[in-house]
Design a protein that fits this description.
The chain is mainly β. The chain is built from no helices and 10 strands. The chain is globular and about 40 Å long.
């Protein structure tokens, strides 16, 4: 089994930045791909960005392209999400997960507990 713990969320003003971290533990050798997801108020959970932790390939959904960057540090079993130029519409709970589905729409593996991101106007 894989356990995931997110951190780095908080309150930031519009235009600001946050860096989220997701630390994996347990059966980490089974992890090939990971993703970041979010659930904003009034909407279903949606994919944000995904990464192949072996080859470093990345995928971003359209609304974060050019603003968010996903990366991984395999030595620390950690995946990051650097979020820049945040807007109030980015407010929500951000989750990391393993085994993303096609186009990072959802994930089939383990999920973290989430970290709250709040962007004030």
């Amino acid at each position: 089994q894989v356990q995931l713990v997110e951190s780095g969320g908080g309150l930031v003003q519009a235009g600001g930045s946050l860096r989220l971290s997701c630390v994996a533990s347990g059966s980490i050798s089974s992890i090939n791909t990971m993703g970041w997801y979010r659930q904003v108020t009034g909407k279903e959970r949606e994919g944000v960005a995904c990464i192949g932790v072996i080859d470093g390939s990345t995928y971003y959904v359209d609304f974060v392209k050019g603003r968010f960057t996903i990366s991984s540090d395999n030595a620390k079993n950690t995946v990051f999400l650097q979020m820049n130029r945040l807007s109030p519409e980015d407010t929500g709970v951000y989750y990391c997960a393993t085994e993303p589905s096609s186009l990072c729409a959802t994930a089939r593996g383990a999920w973290g507990q989430g970290t709250q991101v709040t962007v004030s106007s």
